[in-house]
């Protein structure tokens, strides 16, 4: 057995001595290469039986650029989907949600009822978003004075309309 290196991508491996001058395929990049009797790896098909390689064969061809891109994407995906980055992402999402829900408060039922009552008394079809509910003591007495319309008469008019 002897150590070999793919001339295209540089992947290391081992092969028996019987594989000299035979067709080999890299398991990583699937390129065809062969090993010369001197031990150099050459990209391409081996020469026919009984012939020797013609010309000067490079010891190692330039790596394929697509392999570098694939390796970069592999490294990036390993970093992106590592447990540490997933924990950090989930933690950041929880922090954003906590800030959002601590600032934003849904309208209470009492607030919505008070808005609807005010709109009914004033004859407004859409209640104002800037209006705030009155205190509980004034809420119970509002609309019951003799000078203004009562909430029950207003609501009964609405019931007749619809």
Write the layout of secondary structure elements.
Elements: E1 2-5, E2 12-15, E3 24-25, E4 32-35, E5 41-43, H1 65-80, H2 83-103, H3 109-122, H4 136-141, H5 151-161
Task: Using brief descriptors, characterize the structure shown.
rod-shaped, 42% helix, alpha+beta, single chain, Rubrerythrin, domain 2, 162 residues, two-stranded antiparallel ribbon, three-stranded antiparallel sheet, 5 helices
Number of strands: 5
Q: Label the CATH architecture of the largest domain.
A: Single Sheet
With strands numbered from the N-terminus, the spatial order across the biggest sheet is: 3-4-5
The backbone outline, from C-alpha atoms, is rod-shaped
Oligomer state equals single chain
H/E element string? Answer: EEEEEHHHHH
Mean pLDDT: 75
Number of domain units: 3
Number of helices: 5
Radius of gyration using CA atoms only:
40 Å
Task: Describe this protein's structure.
The chain has helices spanning 65-80, 83-103, 109-122, 136-141, 151-161, and strands at residues 2-5, 12-15, 24-25, 32-35, 41-43. It is of the alpha+beta class. It has 5 helices and 5 strands. The strands form 2 sheets. The protein has a 3-stranded antiparallel sheet, with no helix packed on it. The protein has 3 domains: 1-63, Rubrerythrin, domain 2, CATH 2.20.28; 66-103; 109-161, no CATH class. A hairpin with a 6-residue loop joins strand 3 (24-25) and strand 4. Helices cover 42% and strands 10% of the residues.
């Amino acid at each position: 057995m002897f150590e070999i290196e793919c001339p295209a991508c540089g992947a290391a491996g081992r092969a028996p001595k019987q594989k000299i001058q035979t067709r080999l395929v890299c398991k990583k990049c699937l390129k065809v290469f062969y090993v010369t009797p001197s031990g150099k790896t050459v990209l391409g098909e081996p020469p026919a039986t009984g012939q020797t390689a013609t010309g000067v064969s490079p010891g190692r061809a330039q790596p394929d650029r697509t392999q570098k891109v694939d390796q970069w994407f592999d490294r990036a995906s390993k970093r992106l989907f590592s447990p540490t980055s997933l924990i950090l992402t989930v933690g950041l999402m929880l922090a954003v949600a906590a800030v959002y829900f601590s600032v934003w408060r849904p309208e209470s039922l009492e607030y919505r009822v008070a808005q609807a009552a005010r709109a009914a008394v004033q004859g407004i079809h859409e209640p104002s978003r800037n209006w705030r509910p009155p205190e509980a003591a004034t809420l119970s007495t509002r609309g019951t004075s003799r000078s203004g319309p009562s909430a029950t008469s207003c609501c009964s008019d609405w019931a007749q309309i619809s």
